TrEMBL record:
It comes from Dendrothele bispora (strain CBS 962.96). Residues 61-200 form the DUF6593 domain. Pfam families: DUF6593. It comes from the Eukaryota. InterPro entries: DUF6593. This is DUF6593 domain-containing protein.
Amino acid sequence: MHCTNPYAQSGWTNSSFPQACSELSGLQPSVYGALPFTSVSGDTPTFYRFCFISDGCNFTVVDPPKSKTYFWIMDNTPTTGFMLFQNRDRKIFAVIEWRLSPGTVVEVRDVVKKQLVSSWLALSQDRSYRHMTIGGRSFVWVPRDDYIGLYSHGIANPELYAKVTKVDPSQVVLDITSAAIRLGLLDPCVVAVVLLQSGRHID
């Protein structure tokens, strides 16, 4: 199936990034729910790193040393066409239903009501970025040379909340700020990363 979203399989160059999640430098492990690590002060945002590791069908989302698993993402579920997202307690918090008509459906418990992905991650009119609304706040996913950035939307000076980088065919990295986590963006960002990097039709 050909992908029509402007991010997946877009031919980004990743030469400036190491080729393994454990080799990525600059940020230390994070602990979702505790987040004890801070590496910078002042106006520079603190980022926490999560690595998506694929076994071909399913994903685990781990910290860079791969010592802690924060999310499990399962595509080979008993019900064909569904992808389930589990948190650290192995409780399902999100579901993607892959379907052609009327389109792929997403739901993130208590955050994103069940709806078409084309509504939740709506393409801009010029098809150059995607909108995302969480908790009444507007954000945009914007492709850059080496990553996709999540920015605040509708303000004079957009704030960078997260970056998504594909380091090799089986590994994707999400760097997300502490401010974004406080706003409750981590769970929906994990789901959005899978959708944007899926290579599937999501509109």
